[in-house]
Amino acid sequence: MIIRRMCVLRHSFFPMDVRVRREVNALTSSGVDVDVICLRLPGQPWTERVNGVNVYRVPVAHRRSDNPLRYVYQYVASLLCIATMVSALHARRRYDAVQVNTMPDFLALAALLPKVAGARLVLDIQDLMPEIASAKFGWSAAHPLVRLLSAQEGLSMRLADRVITVTDEFKERLVQRHRRYDPDVIMNCPDETIFPRVLPAEATRKRVEAADGRFVLMSHGVLLERLGYDTAIEAVAMLGDRIPGLELHIAGPGEYGTVLRGLVDRLGVSERVVFDGYVPLEDVPSLVAGADLGIVANKNDGCADLMLPTKLLEYVRMGKPVAVARTSTIAHYFDESMVGFFEPGDASQLAERIWELYRDPEARYNLAANASRFFDEHSWAVEAVRYRRLIDSVAAAPSRSGRVRSAIVSSIRARLGRAPSRNDAG
Question: pTM above the 0.85 mark?
Answer without folding.
Answer: no
